[in-house]
């Protein structure tokens, strides 16, 4: 009990297909695919941003508090 077999997954898939129809399920899978693609693109852009060379540190101390 509590374990899922391939047969269980097929029955669940068939029930979902009957309840929502083929068109709704295929459009939902298309949206999932677009989401995965957008996620991968965001991860790649984030990696490029992290790899970019940071600018040299600069002194931002106010002039009136700077040591003379």
Automatic annotation (TrEMBL):
GO terms for cellular component: plasma membrane. GO terms for biological process: protein transport by the Tat complex. InterPro entries: TatA/B/E (IPR003369), TatA/E (IPR006312). The gene is tatA_17. Keywords: Cell membrane, Membrane, Protein transport, Translocation, Transmembrane, Transmembrane helix, Transport. This is Sec-independent protein translocase protein TatA. It is a single-pass membrane protein. It is found in: Cell membrane. NCBIfam families: tatAE.
């Amino acid at each position: 009990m509590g374990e899922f077999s391939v047969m269980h997954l097929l029955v669940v898939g068939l029930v979902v297909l009957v309840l929502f129809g083929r068109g709704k399920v295929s459009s939902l899978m298309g949206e999932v695919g677009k989401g995965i693609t957008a996620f991968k693109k965001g991860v790649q852009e984030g990696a490029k941003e992290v790899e970019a060379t940071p600018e040299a540190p600069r002194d931002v101390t106010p002039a009136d508090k700077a040591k003379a």
